[in-house]
Design brief:
Strand order of the largest sheet: 1-2
Structural class: mainly alpha
Shape: globular
Number of strands: 2
Helix content: over 70%
CATH architecture of the largest domain: Alpha/alpha barrel
Number of helices: 12
Largest sheet: 2 strands, antiparallel
Strand content: under 5%
Order of helices and strands: EEHHHHHHHHHHHH
Distance between the termini: 77 Å
CATH superfamily of the largest domain: Mitochondrial carrier domain
Radius of gyration: 25 Å
CATH topology of the largest domain: Mitochondrial carrier fold
């Protein structure tokens, strides 16, 4: 304990630390650092609990997972979380520049100048603004997208029968991916709305923890958080249909024409290389197909009370299709290739075959 000092024969309490003006200036920063460390600690605990649950749901790599069993779908869901959540978080700087180029083209005129503006105004840490809603939103989307795609692909194949499933396999890929994306976007939409607002309005919030309550308080819960759901479907459903159907077709063509040996005789490293190459090519097509809706989603989530007509009027049809497209092709191509690589690597890790290069599964009674 601190001893009290005598002054003029009286006992005097020591000076409180808070009375020091320098310490008073440091206190908000200390509180902020403590809050961040606590948030990271809770995130670590949550991740440990999730991984502990998956440990019981997914057999170890040495154990055989039966195809289309509950453990199979659990593994696909976990692979989707890792493939989408991690990759989208990694390209947050590119996504940040792209969104600002769509919203404020006069200020963010090009990719290089966009990075320069962000660096000058927000510093290096500004490049990852909005990474938390990006990670959580796209992890939830990836879980639903890949897990339900494997489910619907098997379900529609069984409905069609072996002959029609083989003959019309591309239609099955399209139907399965569209069905999965409808569900996945419901999980993504609220976090996507907060992400866009945080990224395009620097003074709005620091991240998800303060941005989400502020967004709900200002705009309402269901009304504004899900206002972009229909445009999000318009962006993501064509994107996902192209992503899965073109990937399955490209991988099949690679094994048929570019690699002399059948897929079963290829090494796992070669199969994963095919997955990345097929995913990158598919990603280029995905970016072109879904880009107009991506511009629309960014516009609606940024401008309060805006409509689709306002977006078309301000951006123009040409701008709706082309503004930010080169950057998005690079971003989505790399993103999609990495997603398929991570997803199939996880499947190989737990003892499952890679995706594509084989006919749809036959009916099992």
């Amino acid at each position: 304990p601190t001893k009290k000092k005598k002054k003029n024969g009286r006992l005097r309490s020591p000076t409180s630390p808070v009375s020091d003006p320098k310490l008073r200036l440091l206190l908000p920063r200390l509180h902020q650092q403590t809050f961040r460390s606590e948030r990271l600690r809770f995130a670590k605990i949550y991740l440990q609990r999730v991984l502990r649950q998956w440990r019981f749901a997914i057999p170890a790599p040495s154990e055989k997972i039966a195809m289309y069993s509950p453990a199979f779908y659990a593994a696909c869901t976990a692979g989707g979380i890792f493939s989408c959540g991690l990759t989208h978080m990694a390209v947050t700087p590119l996504d940040l520049v792209k969104c600002n180029m769509q919203i404020n083209p006069a200020k963010y005129k090009s990719i290089t100048s966009g990075f320069g503006v962000l660096l000058k105004e927000q510093g290096a840490k500004g490049f990852f603004r909005g990474w938390v809603p990006t990670l959580l939103g796209y992890s939830a989307q990836g879980a639903c997208k890949f897990g339900f795609y494997e489910f619907f692909k098997k379900y529609y194949s069984d409905m069609a029968g072996p002959e029609f499933a083989t003959k019309y396999k591309t239609l099955i890929y399209l139907a399965g991916s569209a069905s999965a994306e409808v569900i996945a976007d419901v999980a993504l939409c609220p976090l996507e709305a907060v992400k866009v607002r945080v990224q395009t309005q620097p003074g709005f919030a620091r991240g998800l923890s303060d941005g989400f309550p502020k967004f709900v308080k200002a705009e309402g819960f269901a009304g504004r958080l899900y206002k972009g759901l229909v445009p999000l479907w318009g962006r993501q459903i064509p994107y996902t249909m192209m992503k899965f159907a073109s990937f399955e077709t490209i991988v099949e063509l690679i094994y048929k024409h570019a690699i002399p040996a059948p897929k079963e005789q290829c090494s796992k490293n070669l199969q994963l290389g095919v997955s990345f190459a097929g995913g990158y090519i598919a990603g280029v097509f995905c970016a072109i197909v879904s880009h107009p809706a991506d511009n629309l989603v960014s516009f609606l989530n940024n401008a309060k009370g805006a409509t689709a007509g306002d977006a078309v009027k301000q951006l123009g049809l040409w701008g709706l299709f082309t503004r930010g497209l080169p950057l998005r092709i690079v971003m989505i191509g790399t993103l999609t290739g990495a997603q398929w690589g991570i997803y199939d690597a996880f499947k190989v890790f737990v003892g499952l075959p890679t995706t594509g290069g084989a006919a749809p599964p036959p009916i099992k009674n």
